[in-house]
Amino acid sequence: MSDTESSHYRKVPVLTKVNFPKWEIQVISYLTGTADHVRVIERRRGSNNTLVDPARPADDTAAQAKWDASEREALGVIMSTASDLHLEIILRHRTTGDPVYSLWKKICGLHRSADASLRHEAWLEFLALRRSPAESYTDFCNRIDSGYAKIERITPSNQTAAQRGEELRLFAFLSGLPFDDHIRQSLTTQSDLTLAKATEACVRFDTGQRIHLAEADSANAARTLFCWKCDSPDHLSRDCPHAGAVKDLIAKRNAASHSGGGRRKYKQHPSTSGSNPNATSTHSAAANTMSTHSATAHASEESAGVATAFLIGSSTITDSWICDSGASSSMTGCRSAFTKLEPDRRPIRLADGKVIFSDGIGSVCFVSSCGSKIVINHVLYIPVLATSLFSANRFAREHRDTHFEVLDYPERKWINRHTNTVEFTATIRDNNIAYLNWRVDDAVESARITMEQLHARLNHTPYPVLRELVRNKSIEGLPAHVAGPYPGDDFCEDCVNGKLTRAPHSKLAARADEPLARVFTDVHGPLPIQSRHGNLYWVTFIDDYSRFPAVYFIRRKSGVVAAFK
């Protein structure tokens, strides 16, 4: 490389998360020259005036030599300036031997994204631009132009004015919410977010709070009256007499934990002082109850990191899994993802402070983008959970002898210690949330069925017979894994009702005490042949007291009352 090229090459900046447009221009500028090195990474128009990918000459030896030199030149620039951010991608490219254009396209694809979350972030940055006192007006205008150019770059070219107006209304809604609002955090994780979906989420949240509280209270009441607010029996959360004291106690303890202090004595809540002499003892009892149960609560209660239950019953929940270091266990609301599922009930505290309960625990088998199969055990099944979470910390603790994690932005990699191969990865998006690059194993996903469903589909075959059929694989097509119920829990309401018998009438019915006090009547007809007087029905009356019968012929059913009179 000549001195002139070396001096020009030093002007190419090192690629970071925020300077991709400048880096792209500088690389193209460096490779553009008399040697035309840029042709190996640039699409050009072919004979039919359509853009085609760069390709190595087929039969010209001299042209092939020049092309290989351009490939080495372009690869050198990309490796030297992008290795800090994309080391693993570059190393993988070196092992495959693919053209440098595939490496260029992959790096550019990671930095060029046009989803709604990125446009929202770009608009926030654009509207937050302010002129500094030392900045000239010309420089401030240039920053405005650069900010809007970024928005234009990540906005789809086919977006209409109506679509942009709808998107701006969506961004105004998200910008008006606090940064730590759980609805905003949940919505900004969706790459295909629209105003209609955001509106639906708000409606579901407003109604979902009432549904969630009703479900929690109903689940508690199924066993006994139990309040999840103060952890005390004999009442439900909506009737909790300690709600104010518990709320005040939690707020003070959170304030103490944020300030770094240890255990402190808390003063009486201001709302309890005054004319009520029993207020202090009531709130003290609530505080003592919370203290008494603190050890068991921390031992059994799970946390769900960034998850929220505001999308209860939503059909828009995807199969995406988020890598969450704040989740104590992996958890999902998709029952069909489990290879096996056992009954389990434990409390889970969500990011929005709510407490929900799991319905089961089991294992999930995934196929990663690297081609490996991963089985995650102890996954909680929570039907109302809107986001599937992978507990990275629990996986690291349980597999510390077999796997280790490496960060190669924007990817997090889990590598097998014995084979030194990457088994699965997670991609960090611009919202700083890592999404796992895996899917549920198709072979497992096609075999989801419970014993209750199998019992109903096979004409209510007895449970012991079904277990024997599944165990011996006597019928072709039965799944290898069937979830519950287990021996002792075989109960089917339809089967019980179908086996009921009518009890005999062992006692004589009481007779009427006077004539016409009770009259038995019945109508028969229409008869196939009409009588001489045009009658098609007859009605019978039997007096219960005298047992006197009477029969009348009528033309229509409506004549029963007249016949009785």
Concise account of the structure shown:
This protein is α+β, with helices and mostly antiparallel strands.
Descriptive overview:
The structure is a single chain. The protein is an alpha+beta fold and 565 residues long. The protein folds into six domains: 3-111, no CATH class; 116-176, no CATH class; 224-300, no CATH class; 321-445, Cathepsin D, subunit A, domain 1 (Beta Barrel), CATH 2.40.70; 451-498, no CATH class; 519-564, no CATH class. Helices cover 39% and strands 17% of the residues. The chain is built from 18 helices and 21 strands. Strands 13-6-17-16-15-14 form a six-stranded mixed β-sheet. Strands 7, 8, 11, 12 and 18 form a five-stranded mixed β-sheet that branches. Strand 1 and strand 2 form a beta hairpin. Helix 6 runs antiparallel to helix 7. The longest helix has 29 residues, at 195-223. The model is unreliable at 1-8, 219-224, 260-299, 309-317 and 443-447 (pLDDT under 50).
Shape: elongated
What's the total count of β strands?
21
Largest sheet: 6 strands, mixed
User: How many separate domains?
Assistant: 6
Distance between the termini: 121 Å
**How much of the residues is beta strand, in percent?**
15-25%
Trace the largest sheet across and list its strands: 13-6-17-16-15-14
Helix content: 25-40%
Write down the CATH class of the largest domain.
Answer: Mainly Beta
Architecture of the largest domain in CATH?
Beta Barrel
Computed structural class: alpha+beta
Give Rg in angstroms. Answer: 37 Å
Mean pLDDT: 76
> Count of DSSP helices?
18
CATH-defined topology of the largest domain: Cathepsin D, subunit A, domain 1
- Name the poorly predicted regions: 1-8, 219-224, 260-299, 309-317, 443-447
